[in-house]
Design goal:
By secondary structure, the protein is an alpha/beta fold. It has helices at about 15-25, 35-45, 55-60, 70-85, 100-115, 140-155, 165-185, 195-205, 225-235, 245-260, 275-280, 285-290, and strands at about 30, 50, 90, 115-120, 160-165, 190, 215, 235-240. It is built from twelve helices and eight strands.
Length: about 300
């Protein structure tokens, strides 16, 4: 069913739907979806929520993840994913794009665009990927004020407070910040860049009853763990934030190299989604059927 049809919409707010998924027994797996097409593919694979990563989003725009983009640019991506998949989205809100009032504006903008949850982090600009060195942290009190502002502004949005303190302040510092953020109104905590099973387990032990999010990013400080392992460590959510973008980017790189080398894409056809399968993925027929004046499209047979 296409987003143009009213029956496509779930009347339950996205934040409530996201909260219900987290509150179920077990762990919620949330793959990154860097655009609307990726979100439809994630849904077809059986996922019930998707993550919009700031790093994947900016990379798709040809930019580094350094806090360059604005809240309205992020809202554009949220809207396209919400329309395409209808899934509740956990959207990366970086540092909230400013201080308390900016955070409140971000929360309202994300809700209006269709997000179900927001992630806010305790870095200061220019922010960096959580798995890089020399991150600059806001004071715990300043971050707590942002969380409180987000809680004051939200109607239904699920608030996840991320702390990058483990690298510089250790588990003790990260736990102290997390407890302060929960007191300020966060719904869950995202301890970033933990790098051993012992660290994951210790953090969970220190935060009993608090929903925790784990980040299974590639090429970072965290070893590869499975969804089941994270659940065993005591976590309620796990994201694979940039994975879809990385796979797509490598495929594109190989494609352009082949076209430049071979004078065309004829040797890459077996690596492409067919026209038929692409149309099925984006529900071409569903959109066409909404308007009886549109002649049904006949997909041409492949040429030899």
């Amino acid at each position: 069913m296409t987003y143009l049809s009213a029956s496509h919409y779930d009347p339950t707010p996205a934040g409530e739907r996201f909260r219900a998924l987290v509150n179920r027994p077990g762990i919620l797996g949330i793959p990154g979806a860097h655009n609307g097409l990726a979100s439809r593919q994630a849904k077809a694979a059986g996922f019930e929520a998707v993550y919009l990563s700031g790093a994947a989003m900016t990379a798709s725009m040809g930019l580094p993840d350094l806090g360059i983009i604005t809240v309205d640019e992020v809202a554009f991506f949220i809207r396209q994913i919400a329309r395409a998949s209808g899934l509740p989205i956990l959207a990366d809100g970086d540092t909230g794009y400013g201080e308390a009032l900016n955070v409140m504006h971000t929360v309202r903008t994300f809700e209006d665009a269709g997000a179900g949850a927001i992630q806010l982090e305790d870095q200061v600009l220019p922010k960096k990927c959580g798995h890089l060195n020399d991150k600059k942290l806001a004071s715990p009190q300043d971050m707590a004020a942002k969380v409180a502002a987000a809680r004051h502004a939200r109607r239904h949005l699920y608030i996840i407070a991320r702390t990058d303190a483990a690298a510089s302040e250790g588990i003790e510092g990260a736990v102290a910040r997390a407890k302060l953020y929960m007191e300020a109104g966060a719904d869950a905590i995202f301890p970033e860049a933990l790098n051993t099973e012992e660290m994951f387990r210790e953090f969970a032990k220190r935060m009993p009853g608090v929903p925790l999010l784990a980040n299974m990013t590639e090429f970072g400080r965290t070893p590869f763990y499975t969804k089941q392992q994270f659940e065993d460590f005591g976590y309620k959510m796990v994201i694979w934030p940039v994975t879809s973008l990385r796979v797509a980017a490598l495929a594109q790189q190989k494609l352009y190299t082949a076209i430049a080398r071979d004078g065309g894409a004829q040797n890459c056809v077996d690596q492409m989604l067919t026209r038929k399968d692409l149309y099925s993925t984006i529900d071409y027929e569903g959109f066409e059927a909404l308007d009886s004046t549109i002649v049904k499209t006949i997909v041409p047979e492949p040429i030899g």
